Amino acid sequence: MLTAVQAREAVARCWAVLEALPDDALGRPTRCTGWTLLDLARHGAWGTSMEADALRRSRLGEPGSGEGSEPAGDGPEVLAALRSSVAALVGELDRAAELGDTVEIPFGAIPAPFALQVFTMEAGVHADDALAALGRDEPLGADVVTATSVVLAAVLPALAAEVPAPGTVVGVTGPTVDLRLGVVDGAWQAVDATPTVSVRGTSDTAVLRFALGRTDADDPALTVDEGARPFKAWFPGP
After folding, report:
1. Which of 123, 160, 195, 196 is the 20 to 30 Å CA partner of 231?
2. Contact 27, 143 (CB under 8 A)
3. Does 179 have pLDDT greater than 90?
């Protein structure tokens, strides 16, 4: 897992991609269905304000989930709100040593160290969404790869929509990524077992984009076993 210092650095770097979006690009579509870059920035402003509030509540011992604020208005107003909420989030990450044991977000209370991985993944994946919309194909940072791998191992089984035959073990592997999810007692869980079907990529970025639903099984950077092609039917989120 990333340390608080590493998470702070990754979050600041990744959200800076959206903070710096040019006004004439905000109408571009993204690979998030139905969203433009402006929609993505508005979502980012809500998400980062919620994360900052959740960290603040944990630090101060205040009960309740973090609450976010979604800005209205046009591009400049949304980007200004995003910059403000990112600054608040980075400020809270600077004080992560003062956090309580858990951080409460709308999905529930999660361990504080895990929350830092979630917030890093969110920043890294949406920065990647923005870069793709701008026509730039850049690899995910090693810190984002680490955080995303930790989060997916825990979250994908919880989000599973379909369960195939008992004993199925799907491996999602890249140069450093090694996710193994298996069907045990009728449910998905992270396992340490030899995959029966695999998704393999030439880069960690390729396999994580696939696991996140950003690309499909026909991505030339991937080798997807026929039996692993239903992966996103099994795990439609996050």
Report:
1. 123
2. no
3. yes
Amino acid 237: pLDDT: 81
CA distance 127 to 108: 25
Q: Is the pLDDT of residue 238 over 90?
A: no
**pLDDT score of 170:** 98
Alpha helices in the chain (DSSP H): 4-19, 37-60, 75-93, 112-133, 142-159, 204-211, 231-234
**CB within 8 Å of 84: residues ≥ 6 apart:** none
* CATH 3.40.960 describes domain 158-234: no
CA atoms within 13 A on the CB side of 119: 40
For the chain, give the mean pLDDT. 97
Radius of gyration of the chain (CA): 18
| Domain 4-138, second-level architecture | Up-down Bundle (1.20)
Q: Which of 112, 102, 118 is nearest to 47 (CA)?
A: 118
List the chain domain ranges: 4-138, 158-234
- Return d(Cα 37, Cα 82) in angstroms, integer: 13
| Dihedral, 35, 40, 41, 45 alpha carbons, nearest 10 | 120
pLDDT(124) > 90: yes
**Three-class secondary structure of residue 78 per DSSP:** helix
Please check the confidence at residue 19 and state whether its pLDDT lies above 90: yes
